[in-house]
Structure to design on (1018 residues):
């Protein structure tokens, strides 16, 4: 990382040197959110932030439509007694373990039945005590799977693929951070039911393909890793976590996919009549994402001048700034509006900033908001039939107005490419191999230092106990087995056994 | 109303004879919602219902964009202590009354500070009691006006025009009804702040224009009436209620606009620096709508075969049903998909139903869902280059496939027109003049009967006491002064004074 002097441009903290100040500063200075609402961890989405989030959502809607998921909307409140089934599921898994089925697959802390300690409770309404307390959904398995038995009867009803985008709630006791750790969460959740395990597995593959499509649009490289058993969602057969990498080298889980097999179906009695007229439990999956996507975009792409919005989700992809000269005969505002009209007709999102302000102030405003492309229109530009472009990723050049749509599209593509290149370079830069472990006099030692700001990979084929040793020694968290294995076998970091398993470790948000 | 025999077509209750059974039956049978979620008054939005609601929302989004409102998203939870300002406002209005300013304008029941008895309370999170109880928003004045002083500084910040579409909550103790009276409400609310009362009044005019545009798309005639003072929203200077008319002649308030003058601004200390560098309170308005719009659409347009969706918000505007003949050489499915492709490319929402079912079953499914236009494609139609159209509002005819986009658009317009004609005819049919009142031996009597299923209008220039007499005698509710006055003066129904004021009375939902 660069260690140059702090670039405290007009009050913006340096991103590289002081990311933990830069991030909270920039989310407010760019008008994404207002944190002054009087509940900690519940921000107000301002128009610019909400528009950005809705554009991210619209990419998700498109993918959902392409893959034939249908949108639903479930009630926010869940009666406490529905949790009994969820608790039964968890204890069933416990019994399975006690009876020797997959004995090592669960640790104790996951078995306490999840969310009770993390939810907001509604026990009163008006002046009444409610008979059955309710809680604000932290996620909707319980609510949805109560309805699934009513909707699924035969194999013709499968696959059932639904999703919703809703507010969810978690009573966070840790320090909150806009988009990253909040108490009201703008959330996406897809839930599916299938005839058998294999169909559900294919759904997970489809989910990961959707993730790839979205991340490409958001210009974010990611790590997809099958979480270790102790970090698997309660009730899941396996969990794949999708992590973005932040500038400080910490990973941020932005999405996750869970394969539930028929575990929830057994708890909620979700069956269908198969082709042999037998009742059979469905196999289920979920796929979740949240406003953390926006947190990753802010964190990864921004710089010391503010945000840089990936063109696919920029509320304004282009801002046009007419140079306003008093008493000039040349109407730069009219020309700006004309060009904006042409660009808008081609489907681009364009803002004309005709405010009577110094150009420098306008540039500052749109840079901090991360508008990818700025076009300045002055009398000289007009005489030459050009607009003077400034790319938010760097570089300035005159563009031919006669072919402005095509050229702007090309420039926006270049900006996306540049953002991908930078974020991928960062990922490559921070991901290194973990130093070797060696045993000496019965204790484990590490042959080198664990640096801050790095993500580590190892070939690993050890036990949970081995993993615990590594986590304890390094202070890193196992993200799990990368979906991209090593191409050829390598010796396991601890056992020495040959393996293709490529395990990722990181400090996480 | 027709008194023919009940048309119990495949289990659907008769709408005309038994609207109170027809409505709950049809909202579930058409897959709009599922009422089996285990909290009364909180339905699950199924894909078809949610898609319809989102299409209604998208009309609203367009109008908001046209009128330069910006979308925000506020937290759901509101700390109880913020209510203190709202309570202060209400008591200020009370003092104003006690000091002789507008003494008759308030009745007591509005002064108890609104929502406390109607909200859901969050007093616990995880295993903790919260220091400050919070409630689920019933509407967002309190939340928003806490932030407005931070956003508004000078006249340059005005007008401030924002809106949000969110879930709101009301602890209903009355009988719940899908869309019409629910406990979790899909809600639209616009909030504006202006330099002075006149600017705020112009905003109300703009709101009513938006209402007209939307209702035209939804094919719903409405009554816009300035609510009597005792039915004005607490803290409002005046309220305009927008009521749809249901088949049983009851009115359903689907929207409302409030002019707040500077009353809330004084309570929440929302000021701006005016052109004379003086601090001045803003004038505010709100405009709200809810999922009741969908309730009105279901109620007004449906018939004994199911829903009839106005084309502007129909999830599928056209369904194409290929006639499937085993061993036929003519591929009606391919032709259906080809036509669907042409229609979709023109921006129409089209479904091809290629299920291997009896045509009658398909027709039933799409009729109950209210798809406006059905095209049947059989081998004979193909040979003739036609598609056989069935309009959901009645009528069948072959359409030329060679010009299918233009003809379908025309047919959809005809269907919209027919829905407008029918609902307007209903409105005209049910709205009549109230029989005269006369005083005899010190008591008031009415010179005729008040019929069920009718809406009444009167020329009225009386006092609140007069209004109370009328309400008590008739069992009707004052909707208030119609925004459409009489063209020439008429004698007031009670006082005999000449007036243009046209007051509407109805039984309400």
């Amino acid at each position: 990382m660069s260690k140059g002097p702090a670039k405290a441009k007009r009050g913006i903290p340096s991103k590289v040197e002081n990311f933990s100040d830069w991030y909270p500063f920039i989310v407010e200075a760019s008008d994404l959110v207002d944190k002054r609402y009087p509940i900690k961890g519940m921000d107000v989405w301002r128009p610019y932030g909400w528009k950005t989030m809705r554009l991210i959502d619209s990419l998700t809607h498109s993918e959902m439509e392409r893959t034939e998921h249908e949108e639903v909307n479930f009630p926010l409140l869940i009666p406490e007694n529905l949790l009994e089934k969820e608790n039964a599921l968890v204890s069933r898994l416990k019994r399975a373990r006690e009876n020797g089925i997959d004995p090592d697959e669960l640790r104790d802390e996951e078995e306490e039945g999840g969310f009770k300690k993390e939810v907001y409770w509604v026990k009163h309404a008006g002046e009444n005590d409610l008979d059955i307390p309710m809680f604000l959904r932290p996620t909707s398995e319980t609510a949805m799977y109560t309805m699934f038995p009513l909707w699924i009867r035969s194999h013709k009803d499968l696959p059932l693929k639904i999703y919703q985008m809703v507010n969810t709630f978690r009573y966070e006791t840790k320090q909150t951070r806009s988009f990253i750790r909040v108490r009201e969460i703008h959330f996406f959740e897809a839930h599916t039911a299938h005839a058998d395990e294999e169909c559900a597995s294919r759904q997970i593959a489809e989910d990961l393909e959707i993730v790839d499509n979205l991340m490409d649009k958001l210009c974010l490289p990611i790590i997809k890793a099958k979480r270790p058993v102790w970090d698997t969602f309660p009730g899941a057969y396996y969990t794949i976590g999708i992590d973005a990498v932040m500038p400080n080298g910490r990973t941020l889980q932005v999405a996750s996919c869970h394969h539930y097999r028929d575990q929830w179906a057994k708890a909620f009695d979700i069956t269908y009549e198969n082709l042999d007229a037998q009742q059979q439990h469905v196999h289920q999956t979920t796929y979740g994402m949240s406003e953390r996507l926006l947190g990753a975009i802010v964190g990864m792409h921004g710089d010391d001048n503010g945000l840089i919005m990936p063109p696919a989700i920029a509320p304004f992809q282009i801002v046009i700034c007419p140079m306003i000269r008093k008493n000039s005969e040349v109407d730069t505002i009219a020309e700006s509006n004309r060009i904006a009209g042409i660009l808008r007709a081609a489907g681009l999102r364009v803002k004309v900033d005709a405010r009577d302000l110094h150009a420098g102030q306008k540039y500052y405003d749109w840079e901090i908001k991360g508008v990818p492309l700025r076009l300045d229109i002055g009398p000289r530009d007009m005489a030459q039939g050009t607009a003077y472009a400034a790319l938010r990723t760097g570089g300035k050049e005159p563009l031919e107005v006669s072919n402005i749509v095509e050229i702007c599209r090309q420039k926006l593509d270049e900006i996306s490419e540049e953002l991908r290149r930078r974020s991928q370079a960062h990922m490559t830069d921070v991901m290194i191999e973990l130093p070797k472990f060696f045993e000496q006099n019965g204790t484990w030692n590490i042959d080198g230092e664990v640096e801050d700001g790095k993500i580590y990979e190892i070939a690993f084929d050890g036990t949970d106990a081995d993993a615990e040793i590594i986590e304890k020694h390094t202070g890193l968290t196992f993200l799990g087995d990368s979906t991209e294995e090593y191409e050829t076998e390598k010796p396991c970091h601890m056992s020495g056994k040959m393996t293709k398993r490529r395990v990722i470790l990181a400090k996480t948000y």
